[in-house]
User: Fold this.
Amino acid sequence: MAELSPGQSQVPLQVVEKPTSVTVFGILNIVFGGLRLLLFISFGLLVGVSAMQKTMEATAAYKMWSLASGFIGIGFSIWLLVLGIGLVTMKRWARGGSVIYACVMIVWIIVIVGMNIAALFLKWINLPEAGLPEFIGGTCGGLIGMIYPVLLLIFMRTEKVRKAFEAIGG
Assistant:
């Protein structure tokens, strides 16, 4: 038996096979985070706020909410991008961060959709009748956007993924 240097253990190192779902969600996080960041910065804040002010009348509070939610969206995009890099490189914090991100995003999407519905019914916005189909489509699109965080939450909590991250100490 070979001599051990001080501080060296006889416990063999575990070889961890990275689950395919971790790689897939890591890449998807990078792609979605990057695209969302690009869209929020180019379209959402620059064009979207200007278009909103031209197409509908809104209370100052609703306009402020829209602007604030846009900046919060940029933060979520950066968070998703960082988590994607962490998952691809199999960092310990990336799995837990992805679970937290998914939970927060599910709640955030519900809040956004709820605020938009409330804004319409409480007359925070004066939407022309011609703009109603677009508003309803955007609201439904927001709910469809909940699919990804739900899938991310499900896959990051599977036994195989949990065990892979436990093996690396996460």
